[in-house]
Design a protein that fits this description.
About 5% of the residues lie in helices and about 65% in strands. It is mainly beta.
Length: about 800
């Protein structure tokens, strides 16, 4: 019988055979990419190549819409000179370009505008808000004036295709299970921890956001909804670069978001550092109504609850990265990141228990407090090799990440009769740790094969370990008595070993990319017993292959039209906290509970897209998920239990449209519109569930540039009602406005008002509760005024070196 070890060894053997094969064969050409110093591709630049010795003209080409150009079949053993010119830019040139037998020279051409110093260029250069590429959508968050001064989380809320579900979790193109990366490294967080982490990253430090519903095989296969990558700001030119951002937000309460960064690039080394300091001061007003039918064992048929939550805290973060350029080919780098976010949640809960005729029976009042601490430390060591004059690159990354968290809960519950007489007092105390340690090592190789094919291969191994010992107590006469029903000690281990091969190239008017990723997962959990609960454990092994395919047709290199399609398979693995079988209280009548037998879900999806630059892109998508993981709600003895469960089969059909139109000088209209049809079939709590819902989303933006200094923007959002599994969400609407003033080339002010009508309310119904009915409504501090100041400076000179601040990033940011 063939064992799992056999298949693992076989996969790695095939990988190394492909690795050895792809290192053979090079072209005989000069190629490159023309961009401005912000990295935006420049089309229609004229590139001339001459023999250096007698200055004879060899040939001329123009850069295409991606800024690319190529000279093929060049004579060997000669030296060449290349000159690049474009109206409005200084001429770029490079001498002593040697061409040997079977060699390729790659040029990185950065064009500097005429009559403009670098300080002015760094501020006034404009990038499109949405850029559609073959395997991803790139968002420039700075274009959204209403988001300036905010955080990464707020920027995602405004990004096309991104939505938040009823719990505030991120969805991409209507699908849950989204993995979030920062600088191409996964955050390994979900739920409240992920939201808190994203809120700790100032938007001023984000350069771009990449949305990938079907990522290529060099990314981890985790995430049915795809991945979102946040790229922090990087600098390519030598010299000193930096800036600061200060923002104050005034809603019901006031809060601040501040950051500063600096980068120093020298001939042999480069260093970048950033820091952030933010405060949290906000609220949530939550209303829940539960009605119980016949057969429900509860104290009253109607239970109405209002919870007022006040959040106050501070977040401090910092990043430090340094690269040492040993020579033209070899780079060593170290990156460190640190985040600390202590927060206090104080909540007042009032619950009314009524008869079926709505006569008050009793009242429960609770004063609760949660002291949450969360910190993360990330360490990365990397090595990067780039062969001069070739696309051949090798990177090696070693990562160690630590996430430490603790939640101390204090619950005081008092029950009163309708007359106001107290009849019961109950106090609880709990300590819920959240500790994760992750080790990761990976290597990636890019190598050209011939003139029209590029092969990428890589290996990755990661190990995740958690050891969480949660203690709960009942407080009687100021004494702590262990609550064995809730106290638990849960250990979890997971190892993932992966190998991939990816090929991309061009054939005629076709661009193609195909990849295959293998991932072997070994995981196990151990729930230690106590005097009330026995030991339990589980172990799992999964060996999976994940193919990806991308095709794009463009009639010519200068054509604005393109048609593309892609296909991929991905997996969504359960978070370790979802596997812990013990319950965690939110309040006296609301609990979260884990499911140790939760299985991973898999998705197969395909997309067909049409793009007309820069006006529009239209995408049609179909996805099919098996063993869908989703939040489920059940009510037992009046208590509300929330847990993740495998629902069964879910299919999603989507149509997405992005428009960008400039009808008048200075006036830009952007609009994102989407329709998602979701059908979920399952058996839940003994009931057959077959739900189908159509979800509509529209996000228009109008930007008017009054002058070089003044800009004005209005944007909004409409989310239609949505039905998914147990939940029916009501429609939501939001309107925002902002005005921006550039004092000079390095300093600007921004004033924004979000959710003008305070209409962004998360409300809906919950069904399939076995005879019970529940509704909820959540009002947050979404209406506020945001005043921000941004200052940036750049003092440097042109540098052909492409500084990335980390070995793995240049390969991962590659597009087809």
């Amino acid at each position: 019988m063939l064992t799992n070890q056999y298949f693992v060894k076989r996969a790695y053997t095939l990988f190394f055979l492909l690795f050895l094969r792809c290192v053979m064969g090079l072209g005989q050409q000069v190629c490159g990419r023309v961009t401005d110093i912000q990295g935006k591709p420049l089309q229609a630049a004229t590139i001339n190549i001459h023999w250096q010795d007698d200055k004879s003209h060899v040939g001329s080409v123009s850069s295409d819409s991606s800024g690319l150009f190529i000279f093929k079949d060049l004579a060997i053993d000669r030296f060449y000179r290349v000159r690049v010119s474009l109206i409005g830019f200084e001429t770029w040139s490079k001498d002593s370009i040697g061409i040997g037998a079977n060699s390729t020279v790659e040029l990185d051409v950065l064009m500097v505008p005429k009559s403009s110093n670098l300080e002015e260029v760094s501020v006034t250069a404009e990038r499109p808000y949405i850029e559609k590429r073959s395997d991803r959508t790139v968002i420039t968050p700075d274009v959204m004036l209403t988001g300036i001064g905010g955080t990464a989380f707020e920027a995602l809320e405004k990004s096309p295709g991104v939505q938040l579900d009823r719990s505030g979790n991120i969805r991409l193109s209507g699908k849950a299970g989204v993995s979030v990366y920062v600088d191409d490294r996964p955050a390994y967080l979900t739920g409240e921890e992920l939201k808190g982490y994203l809120r700790s990253i100032p938007l001023a430090q984000i350069d771009r956001i990449e949305l990938m519903t079907n990522p290529p095989s060099n990314y981890d296969a985790a995430g049915n909804g795809g991945i979102i990558v946040l790229h922090t700001k990087r600098y390519r030119s030598r010299g000193v670069h930096g800036g600061a951002s200060l923002a104050y937000q005034q809603g019901r309460y006031g809060r601040t978001i501040n950051s500063a960064d600096i980068a120093i690039n020298r001939e042999k080394w480069a260093m970048a550092a950033s820091s952030s300091l933010s405060t949290t001061n906000t609220y949530t007003d939550l209303d829940i109504l539960r009605e119980f039918g016949d057969g429900q064992v509860v104290m009253s048929p109607i239970f109405s609850q209002n919870t007022w939550i006040r959040r106050k805290g501070i977040s401090i973060g910092g990043r430090l990265g340094t690269d040492y350029f040993l020579d033209e080919s070899n780079t060593f780098g170290i990156n460190l990141s640190l985040q600390s976010s202590p927060i206090v949640l104080e909540s007042y809960v009032e619950s009314w228990f009524m008869t079926s005729s709505e006569i008050l029976d009793s009242i429960l009042q609770a004063n609760n407090r949660e002291d949450r601490t969360f910190s993360n430390l990330g360490t990365n060591f990397n090595y990067r090799y780039k062969k001069p004059g070739s696309e051949q690159k090798l990177t090696v990354d070693l990562d160690y990440l630590v996430y430490n968290g603790n939640n101390e809960q204090y619950f005081d519950n008092t029950t009163y009769l309708s007359s106001g007489e107290p009849i019961a007092l109950e106090s609880q105390f709990g300590k819920v740790p959240n500790d994760i340690r992750i080790y990761s090592v990976k290597a990636d190789l890019i190598h050209p094969v011939g003139n029209a094919l590029r092969v990428s291969t890589g290996l990755k191994s990661s190990r995740t370990m958690t050891d969480n010992d949660a203690d709960f107590y009942r407080i009687l006469e100021e004494k702590l008595i262990v609550d064995l029903e809730k106290t638990n000690h849960f250990r979890f281990r997971e190892s993932i070993h992966a190998a991939y091969v990816n090929m991309d190239g061009k054939y005629g008017n076709w661009n193609y990319q195909a990849g295959l990723r293998f991932e072997g997962t070994i995981s196990g959990g151990h729930q230690l017993g106590n005097g009330s609960q026995p030991d339990s454990s589980f172990n799992r092994r999964n060996m999976d292959f994940f193919p990806t395919l991308y095709l794009q047709y463009r009639p010519s290199g200068e054509s604005k039209h393109a048609v593309s399609m892609n296909y991929g398979r991905r997996v969504d693995r359960p978070h370790y906290a979802w596997l812990n079988p013990f319950v965690t209280p939110f309040d006296k009548y609301t609990y979260y509970i884990g499911t140790p037998y939760l299985k991973p879900s898999y998705i197969q999806q395909a997309e067909l897209a049409y793009n007309f630059q820069p006006l529009l892109d239209l995408t049609l998508a179909y996805g099919k998920v098996s063993d869908l993981m989703s939040e489920t709600i059940r009510i037992q003895d009046g208590v509300y239990y929330s847990q993740q469960d495998n629902l069964g089969l879910s299919t999603t059909m989507s149509a997405t449209l992005n428009l960008s139109y400039v009808p008048l000088k200075g006036l830009t209209l952007n609009c994102h519109a989407a329709i998602h049809s979701i059908n979920t079939k399952s058996e839940i709590f003994g009931q057959n569930m077959d739900t189908r819902g159509t979800y509509r989303l529209v996000r228009p933006t109008i930007t008017y540039k009054l002058s070089e200094r003044w800009s004005f923007q209005v944007d909004g959002e409409y989310q239609g009602s949505q039905k998914f599994a147990q939940f029916t969400m009501k429609e939501r609407i939001r309107a925002n406005t902002a005005i921006n003033f550039k004092m000079n080339s390095i300093c600007s002010f921004n004033l924004a008002i979000t959710d003008l009508l305070h209409s962004d309310i998360n409300a809906g119904d919950i069904g399939y509760l076995g005879g019970a009915y529940a509704t909820f409504s959540t009002v947050r501090d979404t209406r506020f005024v945001n005043l921000s100041l941004r200052y940036r400076f750049t003092k440097g000179t042109k540098n052909d070196r492409n500084y990335q601040g980390g070995g793995a990033q240049s390969e991962q940011q590659r597009t087809g």
